[in-house]
Amino acid sequence: MDRTFDLVIQGPGLAASALPQAALELSAERVPAGPGAVRLRAVDPARARALLPGLDALGLDAAVVPAGLLLTDFRVAASDFDSTLCAEETLDQVARREGYGEEIARVTDRAMRGEIRNYSESLRERIRLIAGCPERAFTDYASGLRYNPGAETLMAAFRASGLRRYIVSAGFDQIMEAGARHFAAEGWRCNRLEVKDGVLTGRVAGPQENGGEIIDGEGKRRMVEQLCRDAGAEPKQLITLGDGWNDVPMLRFAGLGVAYHAKPRVRALVALQVNHLGLDSVLSWFEDGEHWRQAALAGG
């Protein structure tokens, strides 16, 4: 039997009566799907996907999802950190605060856009540029992290629904540990800065779980694959979230990969996207999403 799909459209204060005519023509059954979200049931997926660019141009987020999708269908959630859960690229911000200029941020931007193919070497280059930076610059910065809109609600809903939650990042222990504590995550996988006498040596390595190799795009995919195995879960039971080029392998590996306010080359490769709203808008894709949103808000 052919699978049925729904189209979920979201925008601030959106109601079914405000949908574009082309969307209204897709389905006669339109139901609320959460705050500012409308679900159009049993749509033709090809016609619905053809509308996505136009809806995006109107400032609306939209996703074509399997009908009957439940958050409890999933067992593991793994998210990138910088510019996904966290509102900033943490290495760039620490470098600016410590007076290392803008060169690191320029390299980061090129790497996240996919303009530098060898991510590991780009990271080594950036870390060499901040050799001598005190380790405390990272731990101090971690105490005041700013998180993206909806991140707390989404992660709390994941927790309430029973998902195992992890941070998988090319960042560093000094910051990822703070992020994992904030979101009550089961753990994190990230790179490690070499520190001697309290200052950075300019060298970086990956975690033991990645054989000491720097976590790049393929490293992220290997990490989430291992997290699934550890949980006894299949890839189809995995949710991943990310924004940059090095997130693409894990986004495409997962049963549900979400590109959040992603770079253009990432959006071209990942079907499910949040381009305008906060992270918690993902919950509207699930039939039980509003239940888990309310459980999260109630502290359940």
From TrEMBL:
Its EC number is 3.1.3.3. This is phosphoserine phosphatase. The keyword Transmembrane does not apply. It holds the Pfam family HAD. NCBIfam families: HAD-SF-IB. Its cofactor is Mg(2+). Keywords: Amino-acid biosynthesis, Hydrolase, Magnesium, Metal-binding, Serine biosynthesis. It catalyses: O-phospho-D-serine + H2O = D-serine + phosphate; O-phospho-L-serine + H2O = L-serine + phosphate. Pathway: Amino-acid biosynthesis; L-serine biosynthesis; L-serine from 3-phospho-D-glycerate: step 3/3. InterPro entries: HAD-like_SerB, HAD-like_sf, HAD_sf.
